[in-house]
Specification:
Helix content: 55-70%
Structural class: mainly alpha
Distance between the termini: 50 Å
Number of strands: 0
Order of helices and strands: HHHHH
Shape: elongated
Strand content: under 5%
Low-confidence stretches: none
Largest sheet: none
Number of domains: 2
Mean pLDDT: 76
Radius of gyration: 23 Å
Number of helices: 5
Length: 105
């Protein structure tokens, strides 16, 4: 039990040590930084490796909003929000079924 508490404290200490490091504006890449410093901050480097490579893109979100605009037209202004959500999910599943055979190959 003491070893577990010590491990938790060291993780907090790693975070505090990282926070206390002065900011270096010359770092070209966050992933490269964490690759170099993975031995100094192993848990933080692992979290950075898991989250930083995910591209920040909103195109799928924009696509969903454009679909909702085509579903909720002024002629359909009395549709409930749950009905609009169901229609959007149905349309998304239709698109997925068109792509699914390619995934099976």
């Amino acid at each position: 039990m003491l070893a577990q508490r010590a491990a938790k404290r060291s993780r907090l200490d790693d975070f505090q040590r990282y926070i206390n490091i002065p900011n270096d504006p010359c770092i070209p890449s966050a992933l490269a930084y964490w690759k170099v410093h993975k031995d100094s901050f192993p848990d933080l480097a692992r979290m950075a490796r898991d989250t930083l490579p995910i591209p920040a893109s909103g195109c799928s979100v924009e696509r969903l909003f454009s679909v909702s605009g085509r579903v909720a037209t002024w002629q359909r202004s009395h549709l409930c929000d749950s009905t609009i959500a169901d229609i959007m999910i149905y349309k998304a599943s239709l698109n997925f079924e068109e792509v699914a055979p390619e995934l099976e190959d």
